[in-house]
Amino acid sequence: MSYCTVVTGGCSGIGAAVVAELRSRGEEVFVADLKGGDIEIDLLSTDAAEKLGEAIKEKYDGVKGFVHCAGYDMVSPLGMIKPEMLSKLVAIHAGFPVQFLGWLGKKSNRAPETACVFISSLSAHEGAKSHVAYAAAKGAVEGILKPAAAEMVAKGVRLNAVILGIVETEMAQGWMSKLLPEQLQVIKSGYPLGFGQPADVAKIIAFLLSTDSKWITGQTLICDGGHCVA
Fold first, then answer.
1. Alpha carbon separation from 208 to 63, 131, 204 (Å, rounded)
2. Which one from 3, 60, 134, 191 is the annotated catalytic residue?
3. pLDDT tens string 12-35
């Protein structure tokens, strides 16, 4: 039987680093991204999970791992957040993985032992001006984690999440580039181990996908460069 690990948003940022790390370990990886990969797909479409599943089954017997890296940030003050903007953020970060887990729950679509990793953010745990919408979306990710893990564990599927501090990706550079040098320095001072790199996160995710973490499910792992103790 041939199984793959599915990585959404795998063409850039953390997703691309995860793909590179897994492939360096000899793993079969299936990349889903709006801009390419093994399938070019809009995860906000109503049938995205089924389309992705069909594409996977054309090449593999099923899925052994799932990493949901797709998503985006939205920096906007409260008075400018429109309902449709918030809905899209929640849909891409939390709505799609719920739909894909539904597909993955069918026995014929997965390996006997499967591991999934979601991406959350410290934005959902601490005050960050103009990040309300993004924090709400990541809060939704953490909200589905434990009930979904409880439902999937009987099916041999583990589900965990990493809660990330600042990682130097293209998305992070977007808002950091708007800061004054002194503002950026204040933020950096709160990260005694420095800002994270995508490759750092990829190794942690690879651990959560591997059998080395086979006794872990329904958990969140904070990866923040020492920010919580600064």
1. 15, 28, 7
2. 134
3. 999 999 999 999 999 999 999 999
Active site residue 72: no
| Tokens matching residue 22 | 């897994």
Report how far residue 196's alpha carbon sits from residue 172's, in angstroms, rounded to the nearest whole number: 11
Burial of 151 (0-12, 13-18, 19+ CB in 10 A): middle
Ordered by where they begin, the domains of the chain are 3-222 (3.40.50.720)
Q: How far apart are CA 66 and CA 157, in angstroms?
A: 10
Task: Sort residue 130 into left (φ over 0), alpha (ψ -120 to 50) or beta.
Answer: left
- pTM of the entire structure? 0.94
> Cα separation of 156 and 214, whole Å?
10
- Both tokens of 104, joined, read 């993955």
Whether the CA torsion 162, 168, 174, 178 is positive or negative: it is positive
pLDDT digits (tens, 9 = 90+) for 87-118: 999 999 999 999 999 999 999 999 999 999 99
